[in-house]
């Protein structure tokens, strides 16, 4: 089938509409970051940079690190942006943009999110590395897609929903990260567990300012939740859609975050540029 112009949206140069890049601009290993400025922090480690572009909040640098071709790409904040990024990255490698038809075979990307997060366990210190074994989505992005979740994923989502007691309008979903990429990123100083992805920073993560929140006890409940050997370790805003959509399209997806707040201890980092650069170098060396 040919994808019509209204569905596969390209710019006047034939590039994907939001990212503003073409297939030749990206590697098959892509480091995803929320913050635009973090792209330059990653590419500062590259041996060379062969591509640089910026369109809206999407900054893209591609180069080599110790002989391996790598792309760093900013996504902005939230699962709505991840929906755009994953679909357009997949289109770059799996759709012939000129003919608007699927390419034969499948190109699988390695998509590694390097982010920041709030820690939900008192025993994990600020500036720790947090690796997501699973992502629980309390956003709604994956519900728009015909995704076949595994029995384990459905069980974790159902158990957490029953334990926490989210408002009726919220239906959590769960998607596991890539075992292949997780094995590369595990280490003795890396904490692994379930990540909860929210659709916002304030009330969706239990913060209460002038408007209040319907989820005032969500953090305490999440701290206590366990499923088999899994516990919830952090809150962030992108991984659920990354894992669910990326995996459904045939890509390997994982998230590793720097914890910059410990919610149970009510601590927040006083500055984490040095620690973030350490995490970036850790990831580059491991991949």
From TrEMBL:
<dbReference type="GO" id="GO:0009116">
    <property type="term" value="P:nucleoside metabolic process"/>
</dbReference>
<dbReference type="InterPro" id="IPR035994">
    <property type="entry name" value="Nucleoside_phosphorylase_sf"/>
</dbReference>
<protein>
    <recommendedName>
        <fullName>Uridine phosphorylase</fullName>
        <ecNumber>2.4.2.3</ecNumber>
    </recommendedName>
</protein>
<dbReference type="GO" id="GO:0004850">
    <property type="term" value="F:uridine phosphorylase activity"/>
</dbReference>
<dbReference type="GO" id="GO:0005829">
    <property type="term" value="C:cytosol"/>
</dbReference>
<dbReference type="InterPro" id="IPR000845">
    <property type="entry name" value="Nucleoside_phosphorylase_d"/>
</dbReference>
<dbReference type="Pfam" id="PF01048">
    <property type="entry name" value="PNP_UDP_1"/>
</dbReference>
<feature type="domain" description="Nucleoside phosphorylase">
    <location>
        <begin position="30"/>
        <end position="259"/>
    </location>
</feature>
């Amino acid at each position: 089938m040919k994808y019509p112009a209204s569905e596969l949206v390209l710019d006047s140069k034939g590039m994907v509409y939001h990212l503003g890049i073409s297939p030749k601009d990206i590697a098959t290993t892509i480091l995803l970051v929320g913050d635009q400025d973090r792209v330059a922090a990653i590419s500062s480690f590259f041996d060379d940079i062969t591509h640089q572009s910026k369109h809206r909040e999407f900054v893209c640098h591609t180069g080599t690190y110790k002989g391996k071709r790598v792309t760093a790409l900013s996504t902005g904040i939230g699962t709505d942006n991840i929906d755009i990024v994953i679909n357009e990255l997949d289109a770059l490698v799996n759709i012939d943009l000129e003919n608007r038809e699927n390419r034969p075979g499948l190109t699988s990307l390695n998509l590694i999110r390097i982010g920041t997060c709030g820690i939900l366990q008192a025993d994990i210190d600020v500036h720790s590395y947090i690796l997501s074994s699973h992502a629980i989505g309390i956003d709604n992005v994956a519900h728009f897609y015909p995704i076949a979740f595994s029995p384990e994923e459905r069980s974790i989502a159902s158990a957490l929903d029953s334990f926490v007691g989210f408002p009726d309008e919220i239906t959590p979903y769960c998607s596991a990260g890539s075992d292949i990429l997780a094995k590369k990123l595990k280490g003795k100083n890396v904490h692994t567990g379930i990540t909860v992805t929210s659709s916002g920073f304030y009330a969706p993560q239990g913060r209460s300012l002038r408007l209040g929140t319907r989820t005032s006890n969500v953090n305490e409940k999440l701290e206590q939740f366990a499923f088999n050997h899994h516990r919830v370790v952090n809150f962030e805003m992108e991984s659920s859609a990354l894992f669910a959509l990326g995996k459904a399209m045939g890509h390997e997806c994982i998230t590793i975050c720097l914890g910059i707040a410990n919610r149970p201890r009510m601590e927040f980092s006083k500055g984490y540029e040095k620690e973030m650069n350490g995490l970036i170098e850790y990831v580059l060396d491991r991949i």
